[in-house]
Amino acid sequence: MSRPSLRRALVRAGLEPAAKEPRGKGPRNRGLAPPPRIFLPGEPVSADPWPVDLAAFFRRSAPVELEIGTGRARFLLAEAARQPGRNFLGAEVETDYARIAQARADALGLANLRVACLDGKAFVLSRLAPASLDAIHVYFPDPWPKKRHRKRRVVDFEFAAAAVRALRPGAHLKIASDHADYFFAIVEILSAEPLLRALAADEEGKWTTGTSYEVKFLAQGRPIHKAIWIRRPGPP
User: Could you say which of 48, 106, 142, 181 is catalytic?
Assistant: First the structure.
């Protein structure tokens, strides 16, 4: 979404643009990047993170699904409305996107959907208790195609191990990308994790991410790569 489009979306949601955070000292804040956001709204910020209490956060006990990178939350809004018995958490690194998505959820009365300004990867790595999630959705993450930037990708071996720890046995990890090289790198990474099993095409059935990106890419005729992994039984 372009900045003018984002401003219009904020206005439609009755929101003001988020205030810019103060820049650290030094030229272009070099070497002073802020730590990733890993704490949910209302939680105290600590240098020693603890496992998040998702039941307390949602004020009820129910299966929880996490989407990393919600954007305009098209997928989450539809899923939360379709499955009121489940809780949905959106981790969106951009503050204004997260605020717009939460405002849309509130307007629709979706108490089972919360969108927070979080670094989704860091949140999975450091904040989730074992077997606390019923699904993780990673749809069209930034491919960071340049070799020197690949350390910024969401899915790597560290993330795979953390996802296995956070998913209960039988839970799903669902991935989609329009970037073939990144997608097949993801397949290689997740195939090396013994507690994940890729579903065969007949097991997957026909499914869609329901995201704005998928709608746009399909309209453009761009190929979309998708796969589902299931968490095998066994301790991580």
Answer: 142
